[in-house]
Write a structure and sequence with these properties.
With about 290 residues, the protein is α/β, with parallel strands linked by helices. The protein is built from 10 helices and 11 strands. It has a single domain, classed as TIM Barrel (Alpha-Beta Barrel), CATH 3.20.20. β10, α6 and β11 form a beta-alpha-beta unit. The protein is globular. The mean pLDDT is about 95.
Length: about 290
């Protein structure tokens, strides 16, 4: 298998009836400093990676104001604005940062209103195509958070609304307030805790964006390596190909700060798993994945 691929080989998915993107995106968390804090060690390399993603056909880029904080959005605006036709930038709000690897809930309506204004400025946009609640805040009414996003959609600051780190109940509650076009939860070949949410999204034509799409345990990696050897591919490419075949609503967003790694990920768009290979992989029962 070669890396001379284009993200368009993954096919397309349409969000909200009017945003059609290639079904292999890019997650821009890793272009920040260690602990998702501060600027990257090599700012020019981060800029090159972002521009290379678009050159390779990636037209869905996911970020958040908490990555840095603000750094990821600033780099995206610097590297890509004015944006090429068809490029969609999705961002998120609902966290505050006080230091490396430290995250504090804040999904109050006041905070979200300020977060959207900040994201618009940093991304150099007049309207954010997809804005996601990053995580429900246990100290704030979930409905109040969603009402705030719905209000900003009516004001024209947000085109479409999405959710992240949520249960099916959250999705159902949110849909009573505002249409939901995507859900972003942790999910991978080796981490299928949110299988039921993937199924719900597929049944309701909601895009599912798996974060940490390349994570996995040893047993799962053994099977990936076995199939990868047969296909002359890399295990992480097989993991992405499994996600693409798992459901037509899955839009993987693997992240990296390396152009070489980016090219390897994009090459997975053209990797086709036979039904028997997919079934063999799906039959694996991966061990629980620890993120601590």
């Amino acid at each position: 298998m070669t890396n001379e691929m284009d993200a368009s080989a993954a096919g397309t998915i349409t969000l909200g009836g009017d945003l059609t993107v290639h079904r292999l995106g890019y997650g821009a968390m890793r272009i920040t400093g260690k602990g998702i804090w501060g600027p990257p060690d090599d700012r020019n390399a981060a800029i090159r990676t972002l521009r290379s993603a678009v050159e390779l056909g990636v037209n869905f880029i996911d970020t958040a104001d908490s990555y840095g904080p603000n750094v990821s959005e600033e780099l995206i605006g610097e590297a890509l604005a004015p944006y090429s036709t068809g490029v969609v930038v999705a961002t998120k709000g609902g966290w505050e940062r006080v230091g490396p690897a430290q995250w504090i809930h804040n999904a109050s309506p006041q905070h979200l209103r300020g977060a959207v204004e900040g994201s618009l400025k940093r991304l150099r946009l007049e309207r954010i195509d997809v804005y996601q609640l990053h995580i429900p805040d246990p100290a704030v009414s979930f409905d109040a958070s969603m009402d705030a996003l719905a209000e900003m959609q009516r004001q024209g600051k947000i085109r479409h609304v999405g959710l992240s780190n949520v249960t099916r109940e959250h999705i159902e509650r949110a849909r009573k307030i505002v249409p939901i076009v995507c859900v972003q939860n942790r999910y991978s070949f080796a981490d299928r805790e949110w299988d039921y949410v993937v199924d719900y999204c597929e049944a309701n034509a909601i895009a599912f964006l798996p974060w940490a799409p390349l994570s996995g345990g040893r047993k799962a990696h053994d099977v990936l390596r076995e199939v990868a050897t047969k296909l002359k591919a890399m295990p992480q490419q097989v993991g992405l190909a499994w996600l693409l075949k798992r459901s037509p609503v899955i839009l993987p967003i693997p992240g990296t700060s390396s152009v070489e790694h980016l090219q390897e990920n994009v090459a997975a768009a053209g990797l086709q798993l036979a039904d028997l290979e997919f079934q063999k992989l799906s039959a694996v029962q991966p061990p629980p994945v620890s993120y601590r």
